[in-house]
Every structure is written in C-alpha cells, then in structure tokens.
Amino acid sequence: DLRLIQNFNLKVDESALTGESASVHKSIEPVKADAPLVEQSDMGWMGTTIVNGRGTGMVVQTGMQTQFGKIASITEGAGGGATPLQKKLAVLGKKLGIYSLAISVLVAMIGWMLGKDLFEMFLTGIALAVAVVPEGLPAVVTITLALGIKAMAKQKALLRNLQAAETLGATTTICTDKTGTLTQNQMTVKKIWLPSEEIEVTGSGYDPAGHFEVDGKKIDYKSHADLLMFLKSALVCNHAKVQKNENDWEVIGEPTEAALIVAAYKAWLDSDKSSTATVSEFAFNSIRKRMSIILHEKEGLTAYVKGAPEVILQRSTHILKEGNILPLDKTNRNKIESAYETMAKNGLRTLAIAFRKLPKETKYSEESVENDLVLLGIAGIIDPPHEEVPEGIKMAKTAGINIIMITGDNPDTATSIAHSVGLETDRAITSAELSHIDDETLGTVLSEKVLFARARPEDKLRIVKILKSRDEVVAMTGDGVNDAPALKEADIGIAMGKKGTDVAKSASDIVLTDDNFASIINAVKEGRREYDNIQKFVLYLLASNSGEVIAIFINILLGGPLILIPVQILWMNLVTDGMTAVALGVEPADKSIMKRPPRDVHEPILDRHGIIMIILLGSYIGLATLWLFHYYLAKDPQNGILLAQTVAFTGIIILEKMNVLNFRSLREPMTTIGFFTNKWILLAITFTIGLQACAVYVPFLQDVLHTTAMGWEDWGIIVLVALPIFIITEIYKWIRWK
Questions:
Q1: Which pTM was predicted?
Q2: 177 catalytic per annotation
Q3: Which of 357, 382, 407 is the last residue of a domain?
Q4: Which among 1, 42, 177, 491 is annotated as catalytic?
Q5: Which of 64, 234, 401, 737 is the most buried (most CB within 10 A)?
C-alpha cells in the first residue's frame, strides 16, 4: 500500500477491493483518519489497477499488513462447520445406531426367554441390527451428491465441494454483492440528454449492439444531427480503447470513457483520428473535473470538452439545439441542471459534453480555451444489471428466499440498481451507520427491507455471522477480494467465474461460469431437488428395513423358524435396495418445488409425515412377508422351510420394489409426475428383480443365499400380495392432491 506524494491525473480501478464500480481519482491531499476505504483518495492499494495518469508513493504497508493482506487474515479465520445435511445425517446415524442395538438386544433376550436357542437368538440379534441400519445409505448419499455436480454444471454452477448444492437448496437468505454480481461491471451509457430531446440508449456492457430510442420508439440516428455531434465529441475527447477479442469485448483505459466509445459505435462512428491532428490537451483531474482536447480539423481548430455537468455548464455560453447554436439563457440553464440532477437521483453517473470553435489567435491555455463553450448534452452512465436478474429475484421471492444487497458502492447507485431489478428496499445503511448499530439491533434491521452500501469486508462478514446466529442458512455471492471473508463464512459461498478474482473463487463453494445471478436460483432448485431425493431414499430404505425388522420380530414372537438370515438381509440392503435408492436420487424435481418456502433449519430428515409413512408401509411389508412365509410353511411344515424362506426373501424384495414407486414423490400422485419421467428407476427395478431371479435359480447363489427354485404360481402370489402397497398409497395421494 502506498501513501501518494506525487499525482499526475492518477485514476485507479478499485472495484475488486472496495466494490466501487467507477474509477477513483487520486490526490495527494490528506483525508480524515476515519474516512472509508473508498474515500481515501491519497492512498494507492496493493492489487488495484491504474487506468489513467501516473504517480509516486511511499510504501506504508506490505504483505499481510496491506488491505489485501488484512482481508486474507479475516478470510483465514472465517468459515468451518458442518453443512445442514451433514448435521442431519449425523443425528439420524446416532439414532439408528441406538435403535439397532436396542432392538437387537431386546428381541434376542425375548426369544431366549421364550425358550429359543441362545446361539440362534444371537444370530437373530445380528440380523436385526443389520436390518435396522441402511448400510447402503452413505454410498447412496455420496453417489447422489456426485451426480448432482453434473446437473449443477448444466445450470452454469461449478461445485467445489460435494455438499454445496444441497446446502444451497436449504438457503433462506442470499446476501449479494452488486458490482459484477447483480450488475455486469461494465459501464454503459443509458441516457443522453440533449437540449432538443432526451434519448434512451439500448444494449448493455461493452458490446456495441444497440440502438437509440425516443419515447420508446427506435430512431434513425443519421437524421439527428445533435446526437451525432454529441457522440462524435465524446469519441474524440477520449483515450480509452474498446476492441473485440476471441470471446468478448475488451476495454483498455477508463470505464466511463469506454462507455462513451461504445455509445458512439452504436451510431457506427469511427474512432480513427488519422485525418485530424491533436494540437494540445488539458487532462482531467479531481480539481478541474474536466478534460479538453484541441484538434486541427478542415474547418480550423476545435476544442472538445467533457467533464462534470456543473463545471461544464458554468463555462458554457451556448447550446446546440436542432442543428443551431443558440445562447444559453436562464430557462435552458434550469433545464440542464434539472436533467443532470434527475439522472444522479436515479443512480446514473453524469458527464457533460461540449465543444468550441477556436479563433486563430486563441492561446493554448486552460482559461483561454475552456470558456464560451457550446454545451451539447449530458450522458447518463451506469453499470447495468444482468438482464436475467429481475426474473431471478422474482423466482427467489416465490421460493421464500430473502435477498439482501451488500455493496461497497455508494447508496444512491445501490438503491437505483435495487429498484431496477425488483429488489424492494426502504433504506440504505452505510458502513459508518452500521458501526453504530449493535448486533441485537442489527438482527432486527436485517428482517426489514434494507440494503448496505459502502460496506467493508468486516461489515459483510458481520452481517453473515448475525444471520447465521438467527438460524438462517446464508448464501453469499461476490466477485471481489473484499467479498472473500463473507464468502468463506457463509453456509454457501458463490463466486463469479468470468470476472471474479481468484481470491473470491478460492473462498467459495460454488463458482458461476456465466456470472449470472439467475443461475443461482436455478442452482437452488437443483439443491432442493437433491435434498428431496435424499429424503425420499432415506424414507424408502427405512420403510424397507422396518419391514424386515417387523417380519423377524413378530416371527420370533410367534415361535417360527428364522424367516430371513443375515446374508439375505445384507443382499437386500447393499445390492437390491442400493440400486433403486440411487435411481431415486435422479428423480426430477416436483413441479411445485420453487413455490415452497425453504425448509426449517431444525427440521429433521425424518419428520412426522415421514415417520408415519415408514410405520404404515413398513408394517405392510413386514406383515405381508410374514404371511407369505407362514402360508408356505403351513403347506409343508417338515420340508417346506427352505421354500418358505425363499418366497419370504423374494416377496420382501418385490414388496420393496413396488414400494419404491410410492417414494418417487412424497406429495404428488403418479398421474401428475408421470410414470416414465424417471427411466432409471424403472431400469433399476427391472435389474434388481433380475438379480433376485438369479439368486433363486443360479446354483452358486442358491448355496450362498440359502434359496431354492420357485414356480410361476409362487411369483404370481408374491405379485398379488405386493400390488396393494402401491395402489392404496396412490389412491391416498390422488385424494389428497385433488
């Protein structure tokens, strides 16, 4: 970091550090000790970019003591902690562990007390412990999240860790930076006020695609001499360059000057100055607030001037109106003042353009040249929002997600952008005001419609921490170095991939490849889908496993022989259940998924509705399996035990495959979601039934799994017993849906 001691028209792009979208004029004059970072004009910060002029400074801080270094230190101390899904799965795992031990010990003791063999009861206890715990769950969760990475990439979001998408789906609040996130970080001329008319300029960014409109109707710029003179003057009085590279338009120089060039290009004006000779130039600085360039043209010497409207207006004596140079009277002066004040209130940065035909005897000095100017008009310049942002914010509101803008830019610009994208705000709070608000009051303020301007990295970090302390799941978006601490602290950090800094990307969990805020909302939808599907296959696995437990437990109470052996339970849990559970993980999102509010952060994976489903469906699976076993056992009590076990073993798998269709949606009937919308689950069901057929008929597997061959009648009975679990559930869903 430097303390400037010499300054020659020095301008610096500090957007990566402060969030200020416009370049900052530097000075050697001291500022107040408590001045915000963006207003410390006597300092040059490490990592920022010089866009104009030159200067000399004395090094005052190096390494970790610089502003960049301090942000790095804050970033290192931020973040950590488990994701919401990790916390919920940890709780679920502990509960299942306790339940499995308790059930296995209880059943083994009851069986032993009822006169069963102790060793047989020991094996039964192990079988129950295996049955309660869904061994395939960790693998299925991991595979589902991994498949989600590919799905997220299609939504232009690259995941830097496996749980990022699911966490984003749980988001209740999105804290978003403005510059480069909501906006394009490309200054654009949107309005041109001329004494004869006010013109709207379409298009955005540095791509010169666009046209000119008056009252919403496209105009032919060739027939508007005042506009052409304004654009020509803005193009001449300019040192920036805009050029096309392989993928995008590239700017060299001052962003506001580049915006004027792009506006001129929309009228197909040429920036080639080879036909004219530059005679002299008076550079822009923070004191003069204007620049002039004198050209030798065919008609003689002409001075082209641009600068702050109030400065240019003061030095103007005439205006150009409908091709005629007219005296600048009080009425027109009031109109000009009103025009640039209105633009400023709407968040536009303003530049006035003027010219003067110079007499031959004019001295080439500032005071001689920059007087008696003919004012051409005023350009209204802004860093425009991405076109997709308003729709993205609308979708977020529908999904119950709160959005808070936190920017380093000034309050007026931030408020204007917020209103233009549909972000409701009643007031803007600056960093200076924020420093006088305690954490408790700030927590209340955050529930209001506010935005934060001139925010420092520490302010962003503090806001994220307070939101998290109020049980909010917080997503933070940003592209600059100043966003890094908050990106890392947030539950989910989202960096911009195109124009984001490497520091921001490394602190984030997700990188957007298109720098589009709307992609975040699409990624939220994908995250919600992933969580829904994880919940679906958890419920499915537990309903299946509870069916196994019920069948084994009641069979012991009835005094029957072992209905399922441990190796059969492992076959079900790891082989047949796992495939269908993974197929559930790619189930398309429910149509109403983005019309639901975010789930409560304390809501467990097993909610009341889920537990009821597990009990009812698990009971049917267990009782139906038990009936099949005892039905076949009663046919041949002496020699039919192997066939009865095989039918029970196969029957419970068919019941579970029929039951998996119930979990494709926890709310909508099959007629709504469509039977063939998830081809993978149909393939998984077909494949696992094929595997079970192999287990029944292949000699090697018969020996391993203790099975015997079944006839067509046996398969028919199993199917008839299994169908009601799907049909009854579908009828209930359909009635509830209607």
A1: 0.75
A2: yes
A3: 382
A4: 177
A5: 234
